[in-house]
Every structure is written in structure tokens, then in C-alpha cells.
Write a structure and sequence with these properties.
By secondary structure, this protein is of the alpha/beta class. The protein has a single domain, classed as 3-Layer(aba) Sandwich (Rossmann fold), CATH 3.40.50.150. The chain is built from 8 helices and 12 strands. The strands form 2 sheets. A 7-stranded mixed beta sheet has the order 5-4-3-6-7-12-11, with helices on both faces. The longest helix has 12 residues.
Amino acid sequence: MSCLLGNQDAFGRLLYEHFRGKGQLGVIERDDGYVEAVDMAAIYGRAFTAWPIHERRALHWVRGRVLDIGCGAGRVALHLQRHGFDVVGVDNSPLAVTVYRLRGLKQVRVLSISDLSDEVGLFDTIVMFGNNFGLFSNPARAKRLLKRFRRFTTDDARIIAMTFDPHRTEKPEHRSYQRRNAARGRMVGQIRLRIRYKRFATPYYDYLFVSRAEMTRILEDTGWQVMRWVDSRGPAYAAIIGKHA
């Protein structure tokens, strides 16, 4: 998804109003009508000790200069900055970027994942927390962007990516959506959704959840491979992804 403008910036508006002390709930709306509430308090003010265990463990593989793609509420970039890392955050939400700066993130830019290039500099680590492997949207786009990532990362760089296995659900509304995806020739975990808040709404966009086997296939012929899996207590997991020849 490209950078958000005006009334499209629902997540940024939600984040900004929460920052100003007006905690609110937003909505994630899937294209089949399924909705879930977004509790900003749960993701904005979460202390490091309350992060999911696989996220805390995955941080052990962060090194050097760091690019945080899709900063969310800024918690990962700010945590790394406090621990001495040189961190650059990018997000396609202008209002979210405003909040990151107000919270003290030193280097942050309004930039979508599809617009990343070697113009942003050279990095040793890319972090994609908050299930942000999903920002690749689909396998073809993932392969294209992963090949591009090689151009602005060091020879021994790694990507630390979060996602969850969509096959590990028993919820009938999700199983039904997965069957719908299969019938349309889409991946089971390829979700089309938008974020809504008051009169603000993002355009619908694809977000991709994958199993370990699916991620491994997507990485083929990109110059990247999984070095290690970091498990959680559920379907969520982290992948530590490194370069190979």
C-alpha cells in the first residue's frame, strides 16, 4: 500500500489521538465483512516485559544499523534506540510518523515498503515486527521486494520477520475465508482488509500470513533463507532470515 493521504490515514489518526490521551478503539475490517477491534492501549503502551516471548527472543539477533519497516506504535524502534542502536523507522502513515517523532524516535520517514531503495542507506538488520511479514502482500511481491532488500543491506545482514501460521485456526469464520481464498487461487493466509477509525478509512489492501513451509518457498531464489525459527506459545512465530549466495 502506498503512503496514506487525508482521510485514508485511519491508523495514524487512531495513534495520534491515543497519544493525546484520547484512547479509542479502531476497527480492522476484512473484505468479507468480518471485523475486529483495534485496542491502541494494548499495543501503544506495552512494556518490553509484556511483549510476546518470541518477539523478545528474536531481538537477540538484532545487530548494527537497523531499519524498522512499518513501525506500528513505534515500540520496537524506540526500544532499540534506547539500547544504543542506530535505527531508522519507515511507515506509510504520516500521522503515525508524527507520533514517532513526538515520542522521541530520532530517524523516521514517511515511506511505504514498496518505495524502499538504496536511497535509505545501508543496513545490517531489517525488523518486521507486529506480523509485518504480511506487508509483502503476496508471494510475487515478496520475492520482488526481498531481492531489492539485498541492495541496501550488508553482506551478513538479516531480516527479523514476524507472522503467524494461518492454518492453525479452528474459527469457522477464518476457515470459511480460507476456503474462499483457495477457490479464488489465492494463498490461504492472503487477507484483504482495511483499517477504520471514525470517518477515516484506509483503502483495502492485501496482508499475508504464512506457515513456515510457505515462507520457505517464498524465499526461494531471492538470495535470502531462514537461519532460525523462534517459536511462541501459539501460531505466531519469528523467522531470522539471512543472506546466501
